[in-house]
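Dear colleague,

Thank you for sharing your sequence with our group. We've completed the structure prediction you requested, and as agreed, I am returning the results in plain text so they can be pasted directly into your records. Please verify that the sequence below matches your submission; if there's any discrepancy, let me know and we will rerun it promptly.
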Amino acid sequence: MDCGYKEKTILYFYGELPEGRAAELKAHIGGCASCAGDLAALKCLSEGFYAFKPQAPEFNAEELVLAAGSKPLMARFLAGFRRAAAAGAFTALFLFTFQAAGLRGGTAAWKTDIDAGLDSVEYGIYNLQDDMAYSSAADFDYGCADIENQKEQETEKTA
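Please find the predicted structure tokens below.
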């Protein structure tokens, strides 16, 4: 049930409502079971929080100092060597997997004969576009226009 006092219940619980509003809400809580239940839940939670007393952690200072100390140089070197050896083993496994899959002769999965042919055609198209962009195609268009003009003049003379 939404009675419109739900938001004010928490303010009432913490004593943050003005006295007039607090008295009004107290009267409402006496008649509204939902708001009374919310107030009871807040009281129960608050008591539970106050009752909780965590124990202070126990620690041994000497063990903490030893654990925080730096490792000897040889141990750090071996740790780095282990990582490098693991990376090398992973790389060898990776390469062995590709060799076992039959991808020999320098070909990769994405460079099949069809793909290589399509790449060649695509390169040819881009090459032609580039050649046309920087060629004398504009001169060719003017030359065609002159031929068309000459053709029209010849037809006018004969007509």
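Summary note from our side: The helical segments are 6-13, 19-31, 33-51, 61-68, 73-100, 113-133, 137-158.

Kind regards,
the structure core
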